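Page 47, continued from p. 46.
Same chain as before, 197 aa.
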Amino acid sequence: MKACIVFAHEGKESFCHAILDRVTKSLQKQQIACEVRDLYQMKFQPVFDAADMQNVSNGSASQDVLTEQKLISEADLLVMIYPVWWWSPPAILKGYIDRVFTNNFAFRYESGGPVGLLQNKQAIVLTTTRESEAEMKRSGLDDVVKKQIVDGTLAMIGYDVTYRNFAAVPYVENAAREQMLAEVEKIAAGVRKPLGV
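Result:
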C-alpha cells in the first residue's frame, strides 16, 4: 500500500511538523510506503498560469505536474496536512490543487456535472487553527474550512475522506497537544488496506 502525504507548512518546526512526523511513523509501522511532498521545501510553483491552462486544454501537463499526478495515481491514500490561514489552505497548497487535480485527471465533466476520477481511494485531511472549536462553530467558519477541501475537492473527485481540525493549538498546554498527536496516530492507524494488500 502506498501513501502520498502533501504537507504545506513553512519552516521545520511547527505543530503541523509534529503531525507529519506522527502520521509518517504510524503509516510506516503499518508497512505503508510514504512519499512526503513538502511543498515549501520543494519550492513547488503554485501559480496556475497560461501554460497550465493550455496544457489542460491539450490534455497534457508540465513535468512537475505529471510527477505529482503519477504519485497521486499510484497512492491508495492521500494525506494533506496544513494550517488554516484566512479560513483557507495556504496559497501553496491551493495552487497545488489547482495545478495537479485537473480536468481529465481528477475529474471530468458529464451532462450531470463533474464526475470524480480518483475513486476507491482514501484521504486524511489534518488541519490546525489558532481559533478554538467554539469560536469556529459560533461563526460557522468550521464548516467553511471543511467544505473547501474535504467536500468541495477531495470527496467530489472520489476520495473517502477522514477530516480532523486541531483547534487553538498555540494556546493549549503541552498535555493537550500530546492528546492531539495521539488522536493523529489513531486516525492514521485506522487506514483501511485495499483488498489483496
